[in-house]
Amino acid sequence: MKNSNMAFEILRQQFGDLTEYVIQQPSTGNRFVVVPELGGIVRQLSLRKGVTLFSLLKTPPTPQSLKDDTQSASELLFPFASRIPDGKYKFLGKEYQLAKNETGNKNAIHGLVRKNQFQLTEQSISSEGAAIKLSYHLDQPEGYPFNVQFSVLYSLSTEGTFSLTYEAMNAGAQPCPVMFGWHPYFELGNEDADAWKINIPSDTIVDFDDNQIPTGTSAYPFQGSTPLFRKVLDNCFVVKSNQQIATTELRSDNQDVTLHIEQETGEGKFNFLVVYTPPARDCVAIEALTGNVDSFNNSQGLNILGPGQAITGTIRVQLR
After folding, report:
1. Where is the signal peptide (predicted)?
2. Assigned CATH for 2-319
3. Pick from 227, 218, 263: which is nearest to 245 by CA?
4. For the CA atoms of 144, 149, 154, 157, what is the dihedral angle to 10 degrees?
5. Strand runs labelled E in 92-229
6. N or C: fewer beta carbons within 10 Å in the chain?
């Protein structure tokens, strides 16, 4: 299937036994690829700066390794992100038990929509860009007896900006707790993370216990552009923003390119951020979150939707 106009096209193709959609601008090479049946993930994102087309997402390279991935590469994390200790939480005076699905069976981690089949609900092409919308209906899964319609709209603009906009709507009769995060691993060319600098929009770091559950906060002293050379990060930050957007910058001086990851901030938006440098040092996870780790228990950034209520937020990625 091919849907196109002069500037953009949307292609449907096979990736092994998976079906994926390619949204691209042939004149620039800017493109992204989504896999609806595997949790609606973005498998590829390529954006151009000058003469160079950068592949920006590190994901497993084969259909089977993508299915088997336990590192949540590029996954959508909903209705919670990060860890809930022992999978237990309280909401409006009632106790709930989620499946303990983290390696080691200690915690519940990263939500209930990963690797599930999403539905393609919209695709569009205009003079401004192209977009594709995927949705998933949570109908009282184990440990989360709520009814939520979840969707994500991915888009690519003529200016070369990739956007992810999520929406969650309470389709049930009772209030429900929701938190959302995206889990991309970013790369810049073939360099190691040690060659890059990062600018994290925060002056407050979340303190963790041995189980990586929040115990409080501390001052984060590294302001401005900070070299990642030999720096190990696996931390959550409280985002600081005077505007309605906070921007994390990942820069390669050697390649003269800066990756900008913007997250909407303010009431109900993306006011937390996880940054993680994997041991291989070949990428950096930069994860915008609407709530703190374990927000189902500590309520920090937790959104509570009444019946019929919806919440939305946007993350944008661009090169400069």
Report:
1. none
2. 2.70.98.10
3. 263
4. -140
5. 94-97, 107-109, 119-125, 129-139, 147-157, 162-170, 176-178, 181-183, 185-186, 196-199, 202-208, 214-219, 226-227
6. N
| Bond from prior residue into 79 cis (ω within 30 degrees of 0) | yes
**Token output for 136:** 């998933």
* DSSP 8-state class, residue 57: B
CA distance 170 to 151: 12
Residue extents of the structural domains in the chain = 2-319
Residue 275, strand partner residues:
235, 286
Contact 200, 277 (CB under 8 A): no
pTM equals: 0.96
CA distances from 135 to 76, 101, 168, 270, 289 (A): 11, 23, 10, 20, 19
Helix (H, G, I), strand (E, B), or coil: what is residue 193? helix
d(C-alpha 217, C-alpha 203), whole Å:
10
Residues in the chain: 320
Q: Count of H helices and E strands in the chain?
A: 2, 29
Residue 28 token pair: 């620039």
- What per-residue confidence (pLDDT) applies to 246? 97
